[in-house]
Amino acid sequence: MSANVAIPSDMVEAIRDARHLCVLTGAGISAESGVPTFRDAHTGLWSQYRPQDLATADAFLRDPELVWRWYHWRQNLIAKAEPNPAHLALARLEAMVPRLTLITQNVDGLHQRAGSTEVTEFHGNIFVNRCFIEGLEIECDKDTAVPTCPACGGLARPGVVWFGETIPEVALDTALTAARDCDFFLSIGTSSLVYPAAGLADLAREAGAVVAEINSQTTDLACSYNFAIQAQAGVALPALVNSLLGHRAAL
Length: 251
Ligand code: OAD
Description:
Layout: H1 9-17, E1 21-25, H2 28-31, H3 45-48, H4 51-54, H5 57-62, H6 64-80, H7 85-94, E2 100-104, H8 110-114, E3 119-121, E4 124-131, E5 137-138, E6 156-160, H9 169-181, E7 184-188, H10 200-206, E8 210-215, E9 227-230, H11 233-244
Parallel strand pairs: 1-2, 1-7, 2-3, 7-8, 8-9
Antiparallel strand pairs: 4-5, 4-6
Helix pairs in contact: 7-11, 9-10
Bound molecules: 2'-O-acetyl adenosine-5-diphosphoribose.
Residues 26-28, 31-32, 37-40, 44, 55, 105, 123, 161, 189-191, 193-194, 215-217, 219, 232-233 line the site of 2'-O-acetyl adenosine-5-diphosphoribose.
């Protein structure tokens, strides 16, 4: 992949003029940090594991130890990962536009570690634990194979959104409001196959926003975007920031 991605000047201008930039990120933005995506062929988690065995409430109740083993493995992997140039560029971008709403489907916390503030975690956070019964956030023993809730003694679960579950209300409200309000919507490193996140770009476009994607592969929605940049996020986002600063992309 080329290390020199040209960002179209009309896209740079539209972002420069934007009153409110709404950014949606997916697993692809953390791929260069060594965090596996879900649907990339061969390397994606869902090419090796079945979501119905690991990422549903039924699967958890059937075999909480198996599910926790998988989440502990992912927690350890993510804890060793570092934010990459894409996360860092997005954190810089926040200070360059009047308003930026960052919505992430990722549960890895890498945006926050890169310095982004007010990140809306659409699918929760892998380092948060919740009581399976009451849903409340809890502290529990990280070294236990199947942690329990210190208050009620019931099962603790990872604080992520599983298939068949609803998006946390505040996160959904924030995302819908931002998509309707923004004048530029930028989708980064997501296959745009999982709703409701995948519907946000359409919502923004219908409300009059310019819509763009940065993805290492073209997605099914690319043809409906104003701009579709096929590049690694860790290359394209620093190039975008450089362009906004008026610099030529680094050669
Ligand atoms: P996917 O794995 O579905 O898609 C990742 C996207 O990132 C793909 O379109 C890749 O082409 C792209 N990609 C890979 N590496 C990239 C890079 N270096 N730069 C830019 N793009 C790159 O991940 P998501 O769309 O995030 O949900 O998946 C959405 C949801 O499905 C996840 O939040 C998760 C999953 O099941 C839950 O767990 C609820």
